[in-house]
Predict the 3D structure of the following.
Amino acid sequence: IPLVLFTSGTTGTHKAAQHSQATYSAVVHNVLTNLIDPKPGEIMLHAASMIHASGTFVIPYWIRGGAPAILPGFSPRDYVEAIERWRPNALNLVPTMLQMLFQLPEIEAADFSSVETILYGASPMPRPVLEKGLALWGPVFVQYYGQTEAPLAICALSRQDHVDAPPERLLSCGRPSVDCEVRLVDEAGADVSDGEPGEIVLRAPFCMKSYADPSIEAFLAGGWLRTRDVGRFDDEGYLTLVDRTSDMIVTGGYNVYPREVEDVLCAHPAVAQAAVVGVPDEIWVEAVTAFVVPRAGQAVEESELLAFARERLAAYKAPKSVRLVESIPLSPVGKPLRRALREPFWHGRERRI
């Protein structure tokens, strides 16, 4: 095993995914086939951690004669200055970065004319943020859905998929890549009915060989890799992520996936970021609780956000409370760490659900 990649630890444990030369060669082929095909001399600008998705683009660029431009970290103003200086043709952004760029007063006047492709992934993109990006820069966006165990594109939402897309299409992560088989299964590993949510499992040449810790269950029979993500296919074969199996909230006997609630809250014009978790409750067992970061310079009340959510969600999905915070904890690759928000409420309890 020549390469070991560690997961980002979103669920609390950094797992070591083992890749062979064959699987990582397939990773490079997957990127060049499904996401981007750079030309000699072209540049991709990076400001996210190179140990995850950003680093996966380096070898494909080298193979095609392109080059990475790597910043030491992400500062919105420094990032815009780097674009204007280095004139990259491609960017790789996580949704949090794009949200931070849009908070710059000067962003609409920034010169992004060299940028032909903005790749985004790592966590779901709030639809209002994506719509703003499309309005500002046009159809340059390409989404990838993958994980350390299967980098980089299990599914992809192409530039064309973003053009005149219905609102629900922008919430999807696209169709399975050309070199990947995807199924949705229930807890017993059986395929779910059409239109129903299920755990995403896949087979592809770019899947890891195994975890370094053999005690961690990774595959179903037949070599299907378990992602621990829950998704739903629409009638046209587009996959929408519902949430992580480990993040599901059970409230009053109903299952609530945080992302659906977060998407609604992020549609409010005064909300910059939102994260939803379940906290202990004597009546509901788990109460849906939202942590919200307001947009700079905008004030919003908890009662307003609660009413906004209740108008758009089933009663059991709507938050029981909203907490206004200055920031939401993020992983090194920009994913919201729901467990960090959830843990203080469950500390010392015998059961976590």
In short: The two ends are 38 Å apart (CA to CA).
